[in-house]
Amino acid sequence: MAEQDWKASKRTFAAVSIPTLFWVIVFFLIPMAIVWLYSFGENRGLTDIAISGTLDNYKRATEWLYLTIFAKSFAVAALVTLICLIIGFPVAMAITFASEKWRPWLLLGIMLPFWTNLLIRTYALMMLLGTQGYANKGLGALWEGTSWLKTLVGLQPLPTWEPVQLLFNNFAVVFGLVYVHLPFMVLPLYAALDRLDRSLIEASLDLGAGHFRTIMRIVVPLAAPGIIAGVMITLIPALGAYLTPDLMGGTDSQMIANVIERQFKKANDWPFGAALSFLLIYAMFILIALQSMRKKVPEVG
Amino acid sequence: MTDTARPIIQIQNVSKRFGKVTAVDDVSLDILAGEFFVLLGPSGCGKTTLLRMIAGFELPSEGKILIDGQDMVGIPPNKRPVNMVFQSYAVFPHMSVADNVAYGLKIAGVKGGEAKDRVAEALELVKLGGFETRMPDQMSGGQRQRVALARSLVMRPKVLLLDEPLSALDAKLRAQMQFELSELQEKVGITFVTVTHDQDEALSMACRIAVINKGDVAQLATPSDLYEYPANRFVADFVGSVNIFEGKLTLDDPDKAAVDCPGLGKVYLNHGVTGPHGADVWIALRPEKIYLHVPGEGKAVKAAAQDAPDGYNFARGKIKGMSYLGDITLFEIELESGARIRVSRPNLSRHDQEDFTWDDKVSMHWRADSPVVLLG
Q1: Which CATH number fits domain B241-374: 3.60.40.10, 2.60.370.10, 2.40.50.100, 3.90.1150.10?
Q2: Which of B78, B136, B152 sits opposite A300 (nearest CB)?
Q3: Quick one: signal sequence residues (chain B) (predicted)?
Q4: What would the pLDDT profile of A122-147 be if each residue is shown by its tens digit?
Q5: Which ipTM did the prediction report?
Q6: What CATH homologous superfamily does B7-237 map to?
Q7: Cβ contact (<8 Å) for B135 and A221?
Q8: pLDDT tens digits, residue range A170-211?
Q9: What count of other Cβ atoms lies within 10 Å of the Cβ of residue A159?
Q10: Where exactly are the structural domains of chain B?
Q11: Of A103, A203, B224, B239, which has the maximum CB count within 10 A?
């Protein structure tokens, strides 16, 4: 009905869409187009950029050094997505099957981090993981305790505790990204699992399947749209992650977004930064295109 | 039916509470091997909870359930010798019909040729031969239900549980499926336990019916006993249509009884009631058991109605409502007391409905063994 009305009164539809359309064009499409044009330009002096139609930026961007950074960014993002999926699926299942009383609170718990600024959350995580942080203090206490127990039974004590380096390495980047992106994975998974007809699960149990087989044969295939949505919604931002590797990573854990940032700032090479940016955008386009080509699971009403 | 006396399911003092709500309240009943058993009751009466406790999806708060003599405590649904057809059918939407039916067999370790034969046999049984490669979204609701049936029957369970199996089908299909389910049950010889709120469905399919009210068994009887000899007002009212009048038992001999009803007058019975003299009782009278006289016909029939021991059951009234249903016409008649009574009359000829109109003064009579005296 509503759809029909919109089709009938095209003018109202146009009037309502103009502000949004204006916003998208002026603040998104035009700046993107400018950046796209820059990627075919070259630096003339400090601030001038001549758009000469050169492909040199792309040639440089596909050099081995940058391709490895692209590959590494993909690997990190994929690992983060996989960990989020492995952690997020049971969490989403737990929320789905929690009692009516608990479910809103559990969902709130998942969404709570969104209410805090990413930068603050990242610093908080860094305090936790630092050499003087709680993680190390906890491990240290365990170490001391073990050492004390050993002396108690007459064994040699352990050597003195050396704090573990948990920050400024690849581990910290993956840990931080998982921490930031987990809610993005859990929410679409929850949405998909919540829609699942419970009697399908019961039917599987009724026919003799155990819980694990029911999850693998019934729940996962039917939650596939949610799983794919969760993977995309985690993978794409993780691929372009900038803040986490910048703050928590070491010298060897920079991702493609950090390289791009450097081109626009320190290196002052906007055309090259633009080319790298667009290669990243094309990669994301390919991911989205792959997702939309997937065979749809038919729904039974 | 073989070995009818052997109980396949024994429900012993089972209660189920959800928080403060008691869904099933101290129910004990036996379901016999090979019978078509129906749990009938209004929505929210606890009948589905009872079925789900047999399947193992809910655990009794108290009491125990035995299937084929074995206590089901601690036995999960996937280890119970019963299978269920769900109200929504729960056909797996991402699997073909054959894969749906083979799902349980694969888990049970039935492989290759035998699995294939059993799937084909089950599909043939529910008249879905040739549908093996269809996907559920290419099928109608009725066909999906047959898939669900085949998927359960292929497991050769000791008991097949059906949760409101016909509620999602349209009227015509429902009538056909009632017939087919009874036929199927006779053919496979498996005990069927069906939950329904539809009394027609229950009466037409069941060997025995347990009427459930507020978590308790109101009556357990064969369909005809349930209809003709209801044990209480709830059953009389829930199963079929009925006129109920309050009264006092004024005469109670071994071979006759009388109930004085302010609404209906004195009602005579040709059998004893064994209730305390002067007790408050209720008279239940089915609309089709009342003979309505065409205006002016009354006098001639008076003599024929004299089968009651002490006079006959006779009443007068005025037609206040009529609904013509084709096969029968339903009348709502205001009695001289002001109370109303419903009477149904078969349209034996093509002109029967022309004999009556609103506000006609009519008389009616019923046999002395037609009313049922209810003590509760």
Answers
A1: 2.40.50.100
A2: B136
A3: none
A4: 999 999 998 888 899 999 999 989 98
A5: 0.84
A6: P-loop containing nucleotide triphosphate hydrolases (3.40.50.300)
A7: no
A8: 999 999 999 999 999 999 999 999 999 999 999 999 999 999
A9: 8
A10: 7-237, 241-374
A11: A203
